[in-house]
Amino acid sequence: MADRQPRLRYHCVAVVAGRQACAAALELGSTRLLSADAPRLPLATCDRPSDCDCRYQHFDDRRAGPRRAAESGALPDPWPNTERRRGRGRRSSDPA
């Protein structure tokens, strides 16, 4: 039995517009879509389906770039500037 790559949960694709791209392909831009939700090529609203040279660009994940401060090399903020306490506490000895 041949070794198969494990199926990635969030594998996605982006439609890369070809040289003579239609408006539908240009409208998608660099939007990443889950592989299961990606439209078939040529796109249904393509006005040049016989000349379409659009293609898919594959990605392992839908996310593009780092999402957290630690992933981008920055240090996380240890003391956020928001005060979450509201009013005084439950005890009668708590300050007002």
A few lines on this structure:
The protein is 6% helix and 14% strand.
Structural class computed from helices and strand pairing: mainly beta
Approximately how much beta-strand content do the residues carry?
Answer: 5-15%
What number is the mean pLDDT? Answer: 80
Question: What's the overall geometry?
Answer: elongated
The neighbouring-strand order within the major sheet is 2-1-3
Give the % helix.
Answer: under 10%
Characterize the biggest β-sheet.
Answer: 3 strands, antiparallel
Instruction: Supply Rg.
Output: 24 Å
Q: Kindly report how far apart the N and C termini lie.
A: 72 Å
The number of strands is 3
What is the number of helices? Answer: 1
**Element string (H = helix, E = strand):** EHEE
Unreliable residue stretches: none
Give the topology, please:
Elements: E1 12-16, H1 23-28, E2 32-34, E3 55-59
Antiparallel strand pairs: 1-2, 1-3
3D architecture notes:
With 96 residues, the protein is mainly beta. The protein has one helix and three strands. The chain has a domain at 12-59.
From the structure above, extract its key features:
96 residues; mainly beta; three-stranded antiparallel beta sheet; 1 helix; 6% helix; elongated
